[in-house]
Amino acid sequence: MSEPAEKIRLSKLMSQLGLCSRREADSYIERGLVFVDGFKVTELGTKVLPTQTVTLGHGAKTQQAARVTILLHKPVGYVSAQPEKGYKAAASLITRDSRFKDDSSPLQFDPSQLFGLAPAGRLDIDSQGLLVLTQDGRIARQLIGEDSGIEKEYLVRVQGKLDESGLKLLNYGLSLDGKPLKLARVSWQNEDQLRFILKEGKKRQIRRMCELVGLKVVGLKRVRIGKVKLGDLPPGQWRYLKEGEAF
Questions:
Q1: pLDDT tens sequence across 167-210
Q2: What phi, psi does 13 have (nearest 5°)?
Q3: How far is CA 65 from CA 33, 69, 107, in A?
Q4: In this structure, which CATH number among 3.40.30.10, 3.40.190.10, 3.30.70.580, 2.60.120.10 belongs to the domain 69-147+228-240?
Q5: How far is CA 133 from CA 83, 89, 136, 237, in A?
Q6: Backbone angles phi, psi at 145, to 5 degrees
Q7: Residue of 124, 136, 147, 177 with catalytic role
Q8: How far apart are CA 76 and CA 163, in angstroms?
Q9: For residue 228, which of 142, 126, 146 has the smallest C-alpha distance?
Q10: Which terminus of the chain faces fewer neighbouring Cβ atoms within 10 Å, N or C?
Q11: Catalytic: 136?
């Protein structure tokens, strides 16, 4: 006989199912917007079986639909999250005037969209390229959750010499912070530029990987996250993630 399934917190199950973040789940539960097998649940800490059916009420779905996700071409010199001394946060670039003129989304910019808008992943101060900022906990979890397998693609300009063994190490065999790195895809884009495709994002990972094989990074640009590309979005400008567009 198989062991009976163990109950887990409803908020944890909702996060695992991709319905929302745990914090959002607790808010929805308190407001009576969560149903388990068709029955409303309002008590925080409620435990359920992983096999039970969890649905969100209309109010929660409406709230989620109103949340925005913004794609920003972060320039060098801006920090991804909280501003540091002498530097500005990338989110400060998101204004009505800096919206990409070719953005085809029907959404209209409103300052309220900046409330709760947080970067889903980091991009170093001396790097540029695609940065995702979102109000939607589901998207944040998809991009930076522990079990995220979303690819990130970078063009990396380097100085130094790299032989075939070094290139193999960049693809697989290096360790950072005492832990082996996941398999990467690294290839030459041209004579001084490498293309990196990673499924993880340790702090300054690409720069540190390059140092380990004797290369110095002189330019780094993220050009893709999952199926979403930077495209022709100019530095310092942004656009909305369109309906039907997914990572």
A1: 999 999 999 999 999 999 999 999 999 999 999 888 899 999 99
A2: -60, -40
A3: 15, 11, 12
A4: 3.30.70.580
A5: 15, 12, 9, 13
A6: -65, 160
A7: 124
A8: 29
A9: 142
A10: N
A11: no
Written as six digits, the tokens of 125 are 């101060």
* Both tokens assigned to 31: 């407001």
pLDDT tens, residue by residue, 12-25: 998 888 787 788 88
